[in-house]
Amino acid sequence: MISGDISGVAFNECVFQGTVFETSCATRCDYTGSRISEVTGVLNLRGAIITSEQAGSFAAVIANEAGLSVVD
After folding, report:
1. With the C-alpha atoms ordered 4, 21, 16, 56, is the resulting torsion angle positive or negative?
2. What is the pLDDT of residue 70?
3. Domain ranges, ordered by start, for the chain
4. pTM recorded for the entire structure
């Protein structure tokens, strides 16, 4: 679990798998150098910096956390 104010922190070469994000503030927190998968609490990362690839992998998590049902 990652919690608290992580504004401005740069996570380089970190692996976040199964991590729960309960941050209070993530402004300018940089995840671009890390791998992120199977996480929850993505909506708590508002203001963080991520790559387009990371954004794509967050899509299902964001939909789930927003209460959306995704069907194919």
Report:
1. negative
2. 87
3. 2-65
4. 0.84
